Amino acid sequence: MMIIPSRSSNLLFCIILWSTEVSVVFSQNKTLKEEPSLIQKPDSQNKTLKEEPSLIQKPDGLVELDEDPLAVLGKEDLTTLKSSWGLTVNDQCLYEFVYQFEHADSLPIGDDVFKGTCEFGGLENEGEPQIAPDGIPYLEPRRFYERFPDYVWATMGFNHLSVDWLPCGRRPAGYKTAQYDFSFFRVTPEYRAQTMVCKLVNDTTVTIVPGEEFCDVKQEEPNGMNFFIVPGAMIDRDPVVNMPVEFTHRHQTYGPLPHYGLRSWDPEQVPEKPNEWNDIPSFMSSYAGNLVMWQAHVPYKMVSGEESQFHSGANRYFETTIQTLPDTWGVKYDESDGKIQFTIVGKAEICRGDYERAQKAAGGAPIYPNYDDLAAVANDKSNKADGNKTNPKSDENNEEEIPEPSGSSFTSSTNAMIIQILILLFALQQ
Questions:
Q1: Tell me, what's the pLDDT at 372?
Q2: What's the mean pLDDT in 73-88?
C-alpha cells in the first residue's frame, strides 16, 4: 500500500476543496439564470396590481379573480409603437418631456367623417361597424399606456401617459379622422379603472356611433355623480379653474367619458371638416372637482407622408393652482425614418438639482431601446428554436454534433482536469 506524503495530501485536499467551491458557485449562478424570479426588479412594486389579480365580491358571496382589472385602459405596452420617453429639467426649473414612437403598420387607418371603412348604420352592413384587419372594429380606439416613475410624477404632476390611436377619429365635427390622442393623467391607472366609472347612456339616438360610451347625466352612484362636479372659481363660476378661459364642457354626449373624466375644450377652435384641421388642440378633463387629465389631439396627416413636419400649440390657464401644466407642446415627424416626437414643456415642481438626485436614486435616466436590435435578437432566438426542434444536435450540412454550453459541461470538464492532476501526483510519488 502506497502512502502519500503529508505535503501531497495537503495539496490534494486544497484541490478537492477548490473543485467543490467551483461547482457550488457555478450552481448558484445557474440557479439565478434559470429562475429569474429570484432577481428583484426595480419596478416590481409598480406591477403589483397587474401581477396579483384583484378580488371581486360577487352577490352570492363567492370570490373570483379578475385577471386584468386594467384591461379597460388598453395595453401597458411600449413595443407596438416602438416608443420611448425622456425628461429633462433645466436651471430655470422648466421641464421638457419627449415621447418618441413610430406608427405601427398593424394599426388600421379609417376613412374620414365615418364613411367607407368607418361607415355604420347603412343597409350594406346592416348597422354593424366594419372590422379592421386586426380583428377590431375600425370605430374602436387602440389604447396603450405607460406608467412613469415616482420622481417623474413628482416633477410633472402626471402619473402616466395614455396614447390612443383612433382609426376613425371622434366627434365633434372636424375631428372625425384618423388621429392620435396623447392623454397625461394626474391619477393612477387603478383609480381610472376602478373609480372613474359611471352609468352609461343607453339611448341610441344619443350614442349614434357604435362603440361610443358616454356617462348619463342622471347618476345614482357617487362615482358617476363625481363626473359632474366641476372645479370653479370663487368669483366667476363660468371658467373652469386650471383651464383656459375659452374652455367649456358638455354634460351630454361626448363630454363625460368613463375612465377619462368630464372633458372640456374650446368649441370655437373645432374645425367644420377634417381637411380644415391644421392645429393640435388641447382638451382637459375633471373628476370629483379636480383636474385629472391634459390631452392633445394630433391628426394622422401631421405624422405621416413624404415630407417632415412640425406643429405646435400653447395655453394660458385661468386661476392656476397647478403650476406644472404644459405651457407649450409640439409634434415633429421625420419622414426619413418615420419617427414621431411629441413634446410638452412646463414648469417643474422640483428644480434641476433635486430632479437629478431623484433620478439617480431611481436608477438613472431611462434608456432608449433599440427595437431593431431587440427584433433581431428575438428573430435569432426563434430561428434557433425552430432549428432545435428539427435537428437539435447536428447541422444539416455537417453531421457533427454541435455542443451546447451548459453548467453541467463546464463542471464535467473541470472535474476531469482535477482527476488528471490527481493521477499525475500519484504517479510522481511512486
A1: 77
A2: 93
Cα distances from 341 to residues 85, 101, 258, 330, in angstroms, run 9, 7, 28, 8
Distance CA 289, CA 101 (A): 33
Give 273-302 pLDDT, tens digit per residue: 999 999 999 999 999 999 999 999 999 999
Question: Rounded to whole angstroms, how far apart are CA atoms 82 and 372?
Answer: 9
Q: What is the pLDDT of residue 115?
A: 93
The better pLDDT of the pair 160, 7 is held by 160
Q: Report which residue type is found at 60.
A: D
Q: Hey, is 102 helix, strand or coil? A: strand
Range of the domain at 142: 73-376
Residue type, 40: Q
- The structural domain count of the chain equals 1
Domain contains 116: yes
- Cα separation, 96 vs 322, whole angstroms: 17
The three grid cell numbers given for residue 103, joined into one nine-digit string: 406608427
Q: What is the pTM of this model?
A: 0.74
φ, ψ of residue 347 in degrees (nearest 5): -80, 130
Where would I find the H helices in 279-405?
Answer: 352-361, 371-390
pLDDT of residue 37: 36
Instruction: Give pLDDT tens digits for 310-330.
Output: 999 999 998 899 999 999 999
* DSSP secondary structure, 306-318, as one string: SS-EEEEEE---S
Task: Specify the DSSP class assigned to residue 405.
Answer: P
CA distance 109 to 280: 19
Nearest residue to 321 via CA among 229, 241, 261: 241
- 3-class secondary structure, 358: helix
Per the CB < 8 A criterion, the answer to whether 219 and 227 are in contact is yes
Neighbours of 1 (CB within 10 A): 2
- Report CA dihedral (394, 399, 400, 402) to the nearest 10 degrees: -10
41-55 burial by CB neighbour count: b if 16+ within 10 A, else e?
A: eeeeebeebeeeeee
For residues 415-421, give the mean pLDDT: 47
